[in-house]
Amino acid sequence: MPQDNENPPVSAGPVKPQGSLLLPSGHGLRPYILIVIFVLILGIIFFSYTSTSPSYEDSIGYIHAGERLAIGQGPTYEDPNNEIAGPYFVMYAFQIRRDDDARMFLGYPPGYPLLIALGIIATGTETTAHFVVPVLALIGLLVTFILGRLLSGNDWVGFWSAVLIGLTPAYWEFGTAAWSEIPATTILISGICLYLISLQEHRTRRQIVVLSLLGGLLIGYSFFIRYTNMVILPAIGAYELVAKKTAIKDERERWPFYAILGLSVLGILLFNNYYYGGPLLTSYSPEHGWYPYAPFSLSYMLGPSFVSGRSMIEAGKTIWANFPIAVIAVPFGWFLLPRPSRVLTIVVTLGFLVFYSLYAFAPSGVNSRFLIPVFPFIAVSIAQVIVLLGQRIRAKQVRRLAAVMLFVLLCIPVPKQVRALESRFAGSDIARKIAVDIAGRTEPEAVVMTYVHNDRVAYYGDRSVLNYRRIPDSDPVAERYRFEMLEPCLVESVDRLLLNGIPVYYVEDKTPPFWDSLNILRDHYEVEKIAESPAMYRLVPTEELTNKTRDSAPFSCDKSP
Hints:
6% strand
């Protein structure tokens, strides 16, 4: 809302600010100084509350994959029991299997774990793995500032854009923990900014080529962090049609940008073919353990899905929770933006919202992170309205007072967000301690079966885990799990462990136990309770099993008909 009197009105055509990437475009240094101060203050908070003991399975998987990449082992999980007792000894994120490799591979794209690995290699400490996201979150605020400036031609629009997303609850939650959405958003927006800068009229051919190459590489790399970032492609195409029309045919220096985007999409198909076994296969395919139901459907928009559903309604709630009241200004911001910027912003916003409105997992709660890539574009639209209203206030002192009051108003939720981070920190620490306690009751070579604590026991407790949740395959044709696999495969796996002298433990962490697993084990083994809270049992082989010889034959139950 602070606004210099000499600021020109927003133009009606493509916006091409005349300043350089980092220097003011004639509006003074104040917005730049203020955004640096804002980012520094937020950086202190983010680094103070960064989660260094992740408890969510996805986060633990990302960190472990990054640590493995840093030592040259690929995004893998390795457990020798997979060679003797079935491919079930794994954390949840590592469900990809190969016939010629006993290791299990990460089910998510490699872009974010690679960033973690680079951070570890650069600093020489694994602790860095946890701080990659907050660093990128802060960079994301700076590039959002640049995005707002480029789309509107106004430094103050950039400032308020960064402030708006920097104070959202989702940005605090996922900017201080190991999730892929913040890295994907920061790198995507950085690429978009370089692309927009390459369109400025005063750029030389060499600058256009370099900026186009860098912008395309960053956008393409963001696809390998989150495949869904490809939703940006129609928006770029729409922007070109409005801003440049057919001029692209005569601007060969910008062809590399589109070539790189095309190669990035092709690269994903090739990667999928090599990694998942088919160009259109991903970890969200039944072949790799996905639910035996469609991940996307029109029915999920307003109705239930097999996991949550009502995704369009929940998407609206998430946007409102992060931009309360201010979100009403978004359509007005679209109208005020120059036409090419308006088209880009509208198509990006609606593209992401529609995409996740079709997804079985509604973008709410921990899944509200899905919508973070659209936050900068929503923020720019709102900031455009804020700046316009500020321009209507003629008295400079009143304008500044209004800006301070608006900033204070936006900061009202901050104490609540700090308490949420403190609560998450305490909860993660408790979960880690429980996992360490469970592991501490067992021998170093023991195998632990636990549904709730599986990944934490493996990561923090350094124990082998039999992930029996992964045993039944999903059958998309019959829309069911092959539960008939559970008992024979689980029993064969445990038999092989016991015959090889490996202690086996079971943790009763759900009531009733998940998939009736405890009763299945009781039917085949002696079960001795060794601890309470959570209830923990040691499996003792029956006399019949004890009299068997060690089974050296290949595991027979895997993928049984």
